[in-house]
Amino acid sequence: MSAAPSHDRGITVGKSWPRPTTPAPLVPRWEGEFRDHQDWVNFAHKRLTVASDSNGAQLKAICVDTLGRRCANGRDMKRAADEGTFPVRYFFDCEAAADVNADLLDALKDANEPLAMCQPRTDHGARCQSAATLKAWAVIEKAKGSAS
Known about the structure:
Elements: E1 6-8, E2 11-13, E3 26-34, H1 37-47, E4 62-64, H2 74-83, E5 88-96, H3 97-117, H4 123-147
Antiparallel strand pairs: 1-2, 3-5, 4-5
């Protein structure tokens, strides 16, 4: 017995199994992005054909626009261009979300401690706050880099 297909964000999904999926704390391991449609036209073949599985078979990348919609073909990329939802990011596999979040929270806590300990209206306090702010931004940029 097969249920009728449902439409979700432009994708037709056949529902043949009635049991819901078990939630998993996974996040994409972002490999890169296409800035615009022309970037995709020029570089998609080179960027999206570089990964292989343990058997040597090519892995297909998953491309997602800024609204979270899959971009699986030229028509989807054209839609992203027409609707202004570039950059389109891509990934080949996922990683555990808890590991990424725990590292980020620890690093931000370490960067934030000087802000709480130093007096802001002194030269020393200003230097501590500046250093802590720069460290926090570096952690955020590192997290963005690991996510892309």
